[in-house]
Amino acid sequence: MATPEPTARVEESIAGLREGIRGASHLLVCLDFDGTLAPIVEEPGAAAMADGNRAAVEALAADPAVTTAVVTGRALTDIRQRLSLPITYAGNHGLELYREGELAVHPIARKRASLVGRVSETLEAALGPIPNYRIENKRLTGTVHVRSVPEPARERVYATVEDVVDRLAGGRLETSRGKRIVEFSPSVSWGKGEAVRLLERSAPEGTAVVYLGDDVTDESAFRELEPEDVGVYVGSGDSAASCRVESPAAVTELLAWLAGTGTSLLDEPTSVR
Ligand SMILES: O=P(O)(O)OC[C@H]1O[C@H](O[C@H]2O[C@H](CO)[C@@H](O)[C@H](O)[C@H]2O)[C@H](O)[C@@H](O)[C@@H]1O
């Protein structure tokens, strides 16, 4: 029987991971959530990690030679409840970071939280007649979902969000589009890439970074990686990542390998986390 395409991609990515792990003594494994650990679903509140991914992330989290982080656009409180594992979390695209019991919030993002709230409220009124849109106020950023909005009305949602943000925030917030979403966030030069760089700086010497992600905001993290690190893009679009797999199902195969064979290839693992 012919080998299915996703498995071939997984094999290529495993080869990339082997290369990255060779000579490393520690791994910093950074994982995006929606579209990577959890398949994309219609209702954001229903997103959940596949069982196989949970088992692999638990194994990575228990390995002293690995620092495991989930780097997501979701709010920190949301993602921590969803995973409930003792790992590092970067929420709101890196604007809030929780590790080893300590929380750090980007100071400008903290100041602009009330503005995010005001924009969210104004949007409720402005988008009122459009069916099935959903606003997620994540305190430091906001997301407007159009996945369930009829196709012809989606552009109107995007344009309304961009207009309201322009009018109310006057450059203090900016908008960006993702998978069937438009998000508004403080206009600061800090995102997933900067968060990963920060985590890497406090990792032990000899650390290789592995980053898995599927969306626009993950690209800043892929671009941050060094040649010895490994970026795995989930999907079929353009990406700066060095490897790719086709789907969250393939991520499960890849993570199972990483948590088993992959970590056993580390050279004299350190116990610093
Ligand atoms: O950085 P991520 O972990 O990928 O988070 C990005 C956004 O993910 C969520 O929205 C996406 O997933 C939803 C559930 O599958 C889907 O309905 C939506 O269309 C996707 O864009 C989340 O709700 C957002 O807050 C995150 O920013």
UniProtKB/TrEMBL annotation:
Signal peptide coordinates: none
Cofactor(s) for this UniProt protein: Mg(2+)
Entry-linked Pfam families: Trehalose_PPase
Keywords: Hydrolase, Magnesium, Metal-binding
Pathway annotation from the record: Glycan biosynthesis; trehalose biosynthesis
Gene Ontology molecular functions: metal ion binding; trehalose-phosphatase activity
Catalyzed reaction equations: alpha,alpha-trehalose 6-phosphate + H2O = alpha,alpha-trehalose + phosphate
Function: Removes the phosphate from trehalose 6-phosphate to produce free trehalose.
Listed PANTHER family: TREHALOSE 6-PHOSPHATE PHOSPHATASE
Protein name per UniProt: Trehalose 6-phosphate phosphatase
Species, as recorded: Saliphagus infecundisoli
Species lineage: Archaea, Methanobacteriati, Methanobacteriota, Stenosarchaea group, Halobacteria
